Here is the input.
Amino acid sequence: MAAENALKSKEVSAMIKQGFISDQTLSFSPSRSTNSKTLSSPPPFSPAAAAPTQQLTRPTQSQTLYEMMSDEQHRDAKHSDRNLHQKVHKLLETAPFRNPNWGGLVSGDVRLTVVAKDGFRVSMDVHKSVLASKSRFFAEKLRKDRGVSHCVEISDCDDVEVYVETVVLMYCEDLKKRLMGEEVSRVLGLLKVSAALMFDEGIASCLEYLEAVPWSEEEEEKVKSQLSELQLHDSASDQVLLRVSSEPSTSARADEILSRLLTGVLQAKDDRARREMKTLISRLLREDAANDGNRLDVSKETLYNLCHRCLSSLVLCLSEATGMDEKRDRGVLMAEIAREADNMQWIVDIMVDKKMGEDFVKLWADQKELAVLHSKIPTMYRHEISRITAQLCIAIGSRHLLVPKDTRFSLLSTWLEALYEDFGWMRRASRSVDKKLVEEGLSQTILTLPLHQQQAIMLNWFDRFLNKGDDCPNIQKAFEVWWRRAFIKHVAEQENHRLQITVCDYPS
Here is the structure.
């Protein structure tokens, strides 16, 4: 037996790459038998000894800028090393296995050494009985050679401090208390090492902690990535992810939930809260469309149902406003008109963003009754309705709405006169109206029509602009384009055509 133990004492301990024990062929090197002299505890860890102080010197004139930067980086690295060594020293100072009489056990019978990639080494005298009872990995590797002490070395460790703390956790009775207040990234590191060591209690405690504490958005991504990488297949792991994942039934109800949110905003009683929620939901929908291709898909049917609801409310409000009955307060009624028009603008914005607005252009062009009622309301109360027309022209002019020419012409036939009349109030009453943007959108929409329709609109605008000035949209650039198309280019084409005929008829 003595000869066998002597032979074992010469074995080289296995090296565990990456610091997370991925090599299941790990072997341990017995160093002595039970009747030999026990290993003494390692001397107190000294950060000063582990990281000798670097003597700093003033940069000389002969130093290049690159050399000076390299020196600075070297000093920063040394400073980081000293911090790490100090943290490890603090952990070891209070580690339970440093107490010779911990749990009635004598000094450790396993010397565990953790080696960082930069060569920094930490040795711990720990107890085989603790490692075997807490870690299924160690239980498997230490079940042989009873009564024999072992030396275990783990090399190329990513984070020595986390590894040491994981060993310390194996000695703690209340892991929950020990973890309290830790950073999420720190606990994720402990979880990774615990999973590698098959330290089930450590895994459970880390998952319980992660499930209970709040995460920042950055931490959320780290948690999802780490749990996906570890693939623990544990109900506790699923509980952690419940806050960031939904059941299929919830996902299928996304349209129903979004419909409820949109309806809630449209019916909100507090105007300030309504404006804030409009802005928030619009931003979230745009972010979703940009990041994940409309994952939160609100259906076209839902949006058009909301549009019809707003249209019905507008017709009702305008009908009441044009009647002779003065039972209702006129100011309140006009506020309702502005509110419903604002609601409609918001839904149209969402439809345009989601590329679902083509059918609405036809729907809005067909609102002949609403357009007639609109003309009977004082401009100061109705101008918000004309913003819907401007909104559609901007979308058409910027190529975000593709509608047939008949629909484009119908839109302008129904609402262009109202837009002319309300333009002055629109730009004065609302800071959010971009005069140039409206004029550009209107110009481009007109120029998409057949030339004879452009001519009718341009001649009408010419007369109106001369009489209204700034209270009428300035679409001079569109006028110039129409002029060139109708006269200069047309004449040039006719001349070219006659020239071609002459050439063809010239006798050879």
In short: Confidence is low (pLDDT under 50) at residues 1-61.
